[in-house]
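re: ur question from earlier - yeah i can do the single chain one, its not a big deal. heres the input i used so u can compare w yours
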Amino acid sequence: MKLRTALLGAVAVAGLASAALAERGADGHVNVLYWQAPSILNPYLSSGTKDVEAASLILEGLAGFDEKAK
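and the output i got, formated as tokens:
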């Protein structure tokens, strides 16, 4: 039983390893699945997690800095 579990674990790790090595942004789109659509994309006015997480996909890409904090 332990050998079977170890083999199934090894197969699962090998199958997921190729997905982990994919280049960032290579797939082309992101699906965010919730039981209800976000009602507002302003995280400061939102009332739930679904709104905050959907807004973070938009807002986090607007600001950035380099290694010199510029």
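The mean pLDDT is 74. not sure if urs matches, ping me
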